[in-house]
Amino acid sequence: MRLAGPLRIVALIVTVALTWIIVSIFLGGPGSGFSRIQQLFISPENSVTAEPRARKYKCGLPQPCPEEHLAFRMVSGAANVIGPKICLEDKMLMSSVKDNVGRGLNIALVNGVSGELIEARAFDMWAGDVNDLLKFIRPLHEGTLVFVASYDDPATKMNEETRKLFSDLGSKNVKDLAFRDSWVFVGAKGVQNKSPFEQHVKNSRHTNKYEGWPEALEMEGCIPRRSTAS
C-alpha cells in the first residue's frame, strides 16, 4: 500500500509527458502533424527524396521546338489491333479515341503556315478504292503538310501514280512500301528534297515483332513553318 502514492505520481508524470508530445506534434506549426508522426518511424537512411519528373512539352516532346516550328509526334498502328496516332502542336489530329483512323493509310493535311488541320481521313489499302486516295492528294496546294501513319496494310492497293505522288511530297521509302509494312512519313507539297521525317520497317517473318506484322513506329520532331501556303 505504501507504493500506491509514488506509482500515482509516476503515472501522472507519464500522462503529462505523453499529452505534451501529442499536442506538440499536432499543434507545432509547419511540418507537424502526420508528417512528423511518420518521421518517428522512418530512419534517415531509409528516407528517399523523390526525383522531379522530367518536363514534357507539346505532344510529349522532351524539349521545346524553336520558334516558327511545329511540334509533332506520330505512331503507326500496331499490327491490326492498336490504331495510329498523329499529334501536332499538342492537338491530337488522328487517333482511335477520336474515331477517325482505319486500316490502310491515315493521312492528315495541315496548313504549313498556320499549323491548322485542313482535313484528316483514313484510306483502306486492302479492300478500298485507291482512286479515293488519289482524289485526296492530287489537288494539294503548295506548302500543305502531309502526315501519314500506316495501320495494318498500307500498300496492297498502291499503284505507280500513288507512289509517285508520295515521292513528290518527299518520301524516299514509298517505292518499296509493301503488304503490312509499318510506315510513318511527313512531307509537303512543293518540297525540293527528300523529307527527313520518315521511317519504314519491312514486314518479314524473320524480324516481325508481332505474328504477321513488324513493330509499330514512333517519330517526333520539329517542322519549320512554311513561308507561304496557297
From TrEMBL:
<keyword id="KW-0732">Signal</keyword>
<dbReference type="GO" id="GO:0005576">
    <property type="term" value="C:extracellular region"/>
</dbReference>
<keyword id="KW-0964">Secreted</keyword>
<keyword id="KW-1015">Disulfide bond</keyword>
<dbReference type="InterPro" id="IPR039477">
    <property type="entry name" value="ILEI/PANDER_dom"/>
</dbReference>
<keyword id="KW-1133">Transmembrane helix</keyword>
<keyword id="KW-0430">Lectin</keyword>
<comment type="similarity">
    <text>Belongs to the FAM3 family.</text>
</comment>
<dbReference type="InterPro" id="IPR039220">
    <property type="entry name" value="FAM3"/>
</dbReference>
<dbReference type="InterPro" id="IPR039475">
    <property type="entry name" value="ILEI_FAM3C"/>
</dbReference>
<dbReference type="GO" id="GO:0030246">
    <property type="term" value="F:carbohydrate binding"/>
</dbReference>
<protein>
    <submittedName>
        <fullName>FAM3 metabolism regulating signaling molecule A</fullName>
    </submittedName>
</protein>
<keyword id="KW-0472">Membrane</keyword>
<feature type="domain" description="ILEI/PANDER">
    <location>
        <begin position="103"/>
        <end position="190"/>
    </location>
</feature>
<dbReference type="Pfam" id="PF15711">
    <property type="entry name" value="ILEI"/>
</dbReference>
<keyword id="KW-0812">Transmembrane</keyword>
<feature type="transmembrane region" description="Helical">
    <location>
        <begin position="7"/>
        <end position="29"/>
    </location>
</feature>
